[in-house]
Design a protein that fits this description.
Blueprint lengths: L1 E4 L6 H10 L7 E4 L10 H10 L3 E3 L3 H15 L4 H11 L5 H8 L3 H12 L4 E6 L2 E6 L16 H6 L12 E5 L16 E3 L2 E3 L11 E4 L5 E3 L1
Helix pairs in contact: 3-4, 3-6, 4-5
């Protein structure tokens, strides 16, 4: 089966609850549409688990994009890690403290692997399941004008905002995370939202909500 989730935000218990509930195996595929890290306490261990699994594919989220320069600064200046983290927390509060602290405690080899993995995360993916085409992208397609995906820059796709009021590409479903459904007009708070050709799957886990997971073959929605 093919599953999609987004915005786990370091809540590894929900991630493992999902894997256990479906008996996730080598024949399954899981796509994570960005924001594995921050807010929750297990962002780095969760990221390391994803890195080990060939059938779990993670896209870049805005949190991975924003934290990357800070991780690199810690990597190149490990003796200054505490000062770097304090300065970052003073400048911006996006739930990243546990992610940064855990990263700082890793070996340089482990840090290298994580940095390489984040840098190689795709910004979007085009997939097909049971003859249905999908675009997976963290924040969506802002100011849509029937232009190909190559038209968009990283900031567009990682920060949005997505237009939920229109249809986009013909015969293609767009799956987005980033904006919790509690903040989308017309959606039921913290549940997966289907509108026009878009499916929004950030169910607010990083804000006290839940993890939403969609099975693309069956349309089943699961919550953890």
């Amino acid at each position: 089966m093919t599953y999609v989730m987004a915005d786990i935000h370091g809540f590894s218990d929900k991630y493992y609850d999902f894997l256990d509930s479906v008996n996730f195996c080598d024949d399954d595929t899981l796509y994570i549409v960005g924001d594995i890290i921050d807010r929750g306490s297990d962002g780095i261990p969760l990221l390391q688990d994803v890195m080990k699994r060939k059938n779990v594919i993670s896209l870049m989220g805005n949190h991975e994009r924003m934290i990357l320069p800070i991780l690199e600064e810690i990597y190149y200046n490990p003796s200054d890690a505490e000062d770097i983290i304090k300065e970052e927390m003073y400048i911006s509060q996006i739930g990243q403290e546990s992610t940064l602290q855990d990263f700082a405690e890793l070996s340089q080899n482990e840090k290298t692997e994580i940095l390489s993995f984040i840098k190689e995360m795709p910004i979007y993916l085009e997939i097909s399941v049971d003859e249905q085409d999908y675009i997976l992208v963290h924040a969506g397609l802002p100011d849509f004008d029937e232009l190909p995906l190559e038209y968009y820059n990283e900031d567009d796709l990682l920060f949005g905002p997505h237009d939920y009021e229109i249809n986009h590409y013909d015969n293609t479903i767009i799956i987005v995370g980033h904006l919790p459904t509690r903040f989308i007009t017309g959606a039921i708070a913290d549940e997966i939202f289907h509108t026009n050709d878009t499916i929004a799957i950030d169910c607010g886990l990083g804000f006290g909500g839940q993890l939403g997971v969609l099975c693309l073959e069956t349309g089943e929605e699961m919550y953890f």
